[in-house]
Amino acid sequence: MKKSNLLYWIITGLFAAFMIFSAIPNIISEPESVAMITGLGYPKYFIPFIGVAKVIGAIAILLPGLRRLKEWAYAGLFFDLFSATYSILASQPLQTGVLFMFVFMGFLFFSYYLWHKKIGTS
Fold first, then answer.
1. Phi, psi of 68 (to 5 degrees)
2. Of 9, 19, 34, 84, which is least surrounded by CB within 10 A?
């Protein structure tokens, strides 16, 4: 197995796991998740929707093939992370915890880059 292919699956697997594990509290509307997201100004009905969308996106980037769906999934996951980061920064003073969002965005971009390298389009 090529080194870049192995690296792609490690990075993508870790990123997808993060997205799925962060979606579970949203899907089940855990009180802490509801308090955090409604505290950012989002309505309660949005919480399970975004959780399910994150799970679908994470599964889509793990499935082989489906190039167009993967492109949309990567875009959707980026918008989720970027919007969450922006919402936190706009509504609260800067906290060190929000900096981890940039780490996860880095995983997203690295996974996307390695996927394009793997399929031969970069």
1. -65, -40
2. 9
Q: Give the pTM.
A: 0.90
Question: Tokens 């292919």 map to which residue?
Answer: 5
90-to-39, 68, 79, 82, 98 alpha-carbon distances in Å: 12, 32, 16, 12, 12
Q: Contacts from 109-118 at CB under 8 Å and sequence distance 24+?
A: 110/11, 111/8, 111/11, 111/12, 111/15, 111/61, 111/74, 112/74, 114/4, 114/7, 114/8, 114/11, 114/12, 115/8, 115/12, 115/61, 115/70, 115/74, 117/4, 117/8, 118/4, 118/5, 118/8
Say which residue the tokens 């706009």 belong to.
90
Residues 82 and 7: their CA atoms lie apart, in Å, by: 24
